[in-house]
Amino acid sequence: MKSLQDPISVLSGVGAKRAENLRELNIQTIEDLVTYFPFRYEDIQEKNLLEIQDQEKVVLKGLVVSEPVVSHYGYKKNRLTFRIMKEHAVINISFFNQSFLKDKVQLSEEIAVFGKWDAKRKALTGMKILGSQSEEDFAPIYHVNKKIRQSTLITLIKLAFEDYLEVIQEMLPHMLIEKYQLMNRKQAIYAMHFPKDVAENHQAKRRIIFEEFFLFQMKMQKLRKEEKGANQGLQILYDVQKLKQFTQSLPFELTNAQKKVTNEICRDLRQPEHMHRLLQGDVGSGKTVVAAIALYAAVSAGYQGALMVPTEILAEQHLESLTGLFDPLEIQLALLTSSTKAKERREVLAELADGRLDVIVGTHSLIQEEVQFARLGLVITDEQHRFGVNQRKILREKGMHPDVLFMTATPIPRTLAITAYGEMDVSIIDELPAGRIPIETRWIRPKQVDTALNWMKEELTKGSQVYVICPLIEESESIDVKNATEIYEHLRQFFMGNYQVGLLHGKMKAKEKDEIMNAFKENKLQVLVSTTVIEVGVNVPNATIMMIMDADRFGLAQLHQLRGRVGRGSQASYCILVANPKNETGTERMKIMTETTNGFVLSEKDLEMRGPGEFFGARQSGVPQFQVGDLVADSAILEEARRCAIQIWASANWWQQPEFEQLTQYISVHSQSNEYFD
Ligand code: ADP
Ligand code: MG
Questions:
Q1: pTM of this prediction?
Q2: 566 alpha carbon to ligand 1 midpoint, in Å?
Q3: Which domains, from first to last, does the chain contain?
């Protein structure tokens, strides 16, 4: 029996060598081949001569009116020329170094040539001679490599369709096909490659994108079920009275948004299922206190809590904030990072293991090393997008099953949130504490820097402090350091005798960094020049000015994150972007930054401008690669697909129902590959 899982070598013309080459394109089975979709189509409809722009790539059809001639010139170079007649005009056609095409050119016959139009000379530089069949009016273009050519791929796909088209089965449940009027799978796959016309191709694409998003969301819902249902859930029955007292003892009243998310989190804690929740809130929206309440809740129920952050500086800062907030309570807190001294480390580990410690703050070495907890109930990670999907899974793989709360200060556009974090529940703090004065953002050119520095000197007389951020040019930390050092020297000279300037960069030892950071916190330094190592989380309310050099090198999300370092106290704050953008996107980014301080608006823009891959930074993106679907352009389909997946998973044992038989079969065949996460 024929199956789409048959190896590609069943096709005639695919031997060991070609199979190997196809494997490089990730094509191993017939299914891989027929779902290797073109990334675009060459619209080779004919155009009227007058409509064609100079240098445009077009197809010209006409009658060959001269014998083809090959002339040789230079070293091993040749030119094939002939003329065709089209619309009563005679057009010269030249092919360079493709003399073998001569046989395809027959005097007095019709020919179709694809090439680049030279409007002045009324001539075409040929690139390809097309078959005369009109079926190629809408030609698929595939990603190929040096070993596999477009034409080879097309031939193979056609060959596969001859034998296997009938084997392609519908796998989406009928109700979805009906509901969304989707093209069936067989038709859609065929029309992705060889559509009759634009309309048919559009329908095919719509179906394939839906399928792609839907299957992905089914997987996320499965993951969600696994995360939430893993082992026995924890029911953290916290002490409501104590929690109320604690919130009332805070020096401020919680914002409505903070109250709302605190309730969502507390409900999760009480429920027998595991918490698996993402807390999003702009910089300064007050996530720390929410984390503190959740930790206290766990402790009041007799559990231990852990707070994980990506850097040591942050760990120390969080320890400090928590120590302050927990001051009136009997809570045993400790810090654990890679620079914790051996003796202290041993003590901390012992106290965690026997339960004397209630809350531990640290970097993610917390869960990666042999740390034993007596009764771990809640893990909170801050700036969670720095922990990739795989690190998120570590907790589970370690056999620990605490409730988990992920916090992030990067407002994530919804489409990304439901893909990268589709398996989580999401809480959003969409409101800043009252009384904050919006940060004023200005964009200046590099030549205006000295003017800005003079203004800064004035501002410093009010007792405030300044950050100066130098960009991180990836892959070349030493250049960054040099760059930052130069700026530091310049500012040191400039402020000499008035203010103290410090320098912070990624090449410094942790201890040095801490010293500088602490000096800045204590206002022993008034100006801090830094590469982006301070990007995350640092809280110095007295700092009211941020100057970002070469600001156009940063993405919007990152600029926003940086800007959030100021505006934390009651003083007016400023952000100065220094940039000479070389292109329009750079210019637009600077403008948007001066126009809004709303992180969600900025993040949507950022996604639009840079695409999902860049959004989180290349490395730990956690954003799946979709073959056809586009998270921005096809977001409506994504939403629908997600709704469907959630609905299906909500019905118990859906996989046993006949309606889903094809779907479950399809999923079980494809369950090996984890393509979305690797
Ligand atoms: P985030 O971690 O979300 O960036 P933080 O938790 O560091 O923000 O809070 C920023 C500042 O706002 C802190 O100084 C904190 O004490 C203060 N803060 C938090 N919640 C409130 C509130 N409801 N009212 C006033 N100030 C608050
Ligand atoms: Mg924070």
A1: 0.71
A2: 13
A3: 49-135 (2.40.50.140), 240-429 (3.40.50.300), 440-596 (3.40.50.300)
